[in-house]
Amino acid sequence: MTETTLTISELTERVREIFERSGLTPLHAGALARVIVAGERDACKSHGIYRIEGCLRTVKAGKVSPDAEPDVATDDTAIVRVDAKGGFSVAAFEMGVPALAERTQKLGMAAMVINDCTHFSALWPEIEMLTERNLVGMAMCPSYASVAPTGGTEALFGTNPFAFGWPRPGNDPYVFDFATSVAARGEIELHRRAGDQLPEGWAVDADGNPTTDPQAALDGAMLPFGGHKGSAISAMIELMAGVMIGDLTSPESLAKLGMTTLSPSHGELILAFDPARFAAGRAGDPMARAETLFDAITGQGARLPSQRRFAARKKAQADGVTLNADEMAMLERLKAEGLNAV
């Protein structure tokens, strides 16, 4: 199969142009292009250019505002509030993170609440915007109901991702980002498209029976990772990033959306910490002490999370991003037809 290699900037420009031609403002087109290309660059195909069509379908269905202007509000508290005004979350986050960093550096810790947004992307690009500022970050959000609680048989939770990042000056940050379901919904969809069966224990069908059929899983429910532990963490995210911030839980998001083929609407909670402020007055440099821990992990032959992603990034920065003929054809079709292509 013929392959095409593009530089990161070339691919970003192509994706940005697709979104602008489909009616998104430069604010949203640019933010979406950056996060989607970041997924492709880091070999995270489930959050790469495959996501473009879902974004366009959501715009076409009128479930997200393509020209929303997020509003960032601060006061004398530790909470930064961003009203996404029904737009995609990525631009809202990018607009709010400078205020979040300022509040964190002043107070030692702060939170950013994003309300009324449509979210589809991985959380690690957001976390890395905090670690780049030498801040520790945590982020979480619900989704739409697609995961059964442990012991249950029907979708109730979302995939409910959770991410954490620790800055490592002069090195790649320590970052993990995972769905609280066994796998991200995008992974199920990629298995379906490839005609591959799922591993056992990933999902149940519409009758609550275990299944390895991707379509049956999409029609039924995924399962939490780690049994009751993942189920409890998923419930925590519903409470903190849904109920606590006055936004939609995953069942409410699904009811609003009406289907699982579009990007979900809900809120997002981001927490930021300044480790220097937390360790003030105590012996030892927290950055150096963290490196001792990381060395102990890798010294046993273990891998730090995101190491493969960072390796893929370095390769893409040097050699570009390679797409197959089908992927290039998809980009050309979406550029030419815009919303008519979905």
TrEMBL record:
Family recorded in the similarity comment: Belongs to the LDH2/MDH2 oxidoreductase family.
InterPro entries reported in the protein's UniProt record: Mal/L-sulf/L-lact_DH-like_ah (IPR043144), Mal/L-sulf/L-lact_DH-like_NADP (IPR043143), Mal/L-sulfo/L-lacto_DH-like_sf (IPR036111), Malate/L-lactate_DH-like (IPR003767)
Entry annotated with the keyword Oxidoreductase: yes
GO molecular function, one term: oxidoreductase activity
Protein name: Ldh family oxidoreductase
Gene3D superfamilies for this protein: 1.10.1530.10, Hypothetical oxidoreductase yiak, domain 2
Keywords: Oxidoreductase
Pfam family name, one: Ldh_2
